[in-house]
Design a protein that fits this description.
globular, four-stranded antiparallel sheet, about 35% helix, single chain
Length: about 220
C-alpha cells in the first residue's frame, strides 16, 4: 500500500499480545452470550422452528501488516466476517467454502422464513445452501469502503471484488491496484498486480468489479 501510506508501522510486540488477549476475551464473552440464547430456545421448546444467524459488520486488524482496527485496508482480517446459520433441518457443522456476501443476509432471512423477497434486492437467498442442497450462485463479494475526512485530501475510497481464488482491490484516488491469490497466499503478503502474465486476469476482475458496482446500485437508482 505504498501510495496509500498504510501498513508500514512497526508495532510493539507486547502491545500486539495485549490486544490479542483482550480480543479473545471479548470473543469468549460473545460466545457465552450466544450460548445463553441457544439454551433459552431449548428451554422454551422452540429450537426446532427457530432460525439463528450470527453475523458481524467487520473484523479488526490485530497487528497483521503493521495495522490495527478497521479502515480502508485491503486485507481479510477486517473484511472477512462470520456468517453462521443455524436452521431447522440444516446439516450441523457444514462449512461453505465459497464466497458469500453481507448483501445475502436479508434475502436469506426472508428465504428461510418462506417470504418472497423483491427481485431487485442485490443479494442472494441462501436457503438452499443452508439446507445443504446447493452452492452459492454468485461466489463473489463486493467490498466498498469510503473513509471520509475534513477535506478531499483525507477522502480515501476503496473498492474490491473477492472471488474464491482472488481478491482485486482498487484505490481510485491514488490509482493503486492490489491483487492477492487467496488460495496460495492466504496471509495476503504479496501484491501480484504488477505481474505481466496476470494482466488479463486483472482486466477480467475489473470487469466483474464494475459489473457488481452497477448491479448493486441499479435498484436504488430505479426506485428514485
Amino acid at each position: 500500500m505504498t501510495k496509500v501510506g498504510l501498513g508500514t508501522d512497526v508495532i510493539d510486540p507486547e502491545l500486539i499480545k495485549k490486544s490479542i488477549k483482550q480480543t479473545y476475551g471479548m470473543e469468549s464473552h460473545v460466545d457465552e452470550q450466544v450460548g445463553r440464547v441457544l439454551d433459552c430456545l431449548d428451554e422454551l421448546g422452540i429450537t426446532d422452528n427457530t432460525v439463528v444467524i450470527f453475523i458481524s459488520d467487520h473484523g479488526d486488524q490485530l497487528g497483521e501488516h503493521g495495522l490495527f482496527y478497521k479502515s480502508v485496508y485491503p486485507y481479510d482480517a477486517h473484511m472477512r466476517i462470520p456468517f453462521i446459520v443455524k436452521a431447522p433441518g440444516a446439516p450441523k457443522g457444514k462449512v461453505v467454502e465459497d464466497v458469500v456476501s453481507m448483501l445475502d443476509l436479508v434475502p436469506t432471512v426472508m428465504d428461510l422464513a418462506g417470504v418472497a423477497f423483491p427481485c431487485d434486492l442485490p443479494g442472494e437467498g441462501l436457503a438452499p445452501v443452508v439446507a445443504g442442497d446447493a452452492e452459492p450462485l454468485r461466489k463473489t463479494a463486493l467490498v466498498e469502503i469510503d473513509r471520509m475526512g475534513k477535506s478531499f485530501d483525507h477522502h480515501l475510497p476503496m473498492r474490491a471484488i473477492v472471488t474464491n481464488e482472488y481478491k482485486l482491490v482498487y484505490y481510485p484516488k491514488h490509482k493503486e491496484t492490489m491483487l492477492f491469490d487467496r488460495k496460495n497466499d492466504p496471509c495476503e503478503l504479496k501484491n501480484l498486480a504488477g505481474e505481466p502474465e496476470l494482466q488479463p486476469l486483472i482486466l477480467e476482475l475489473f470487469k466483474q468489479l464494475q459489473s457488481e458496482l452497477t448491479r448493486t446500485e441499479m435498484p436504488a437508482l430505479l426506485r428514485k
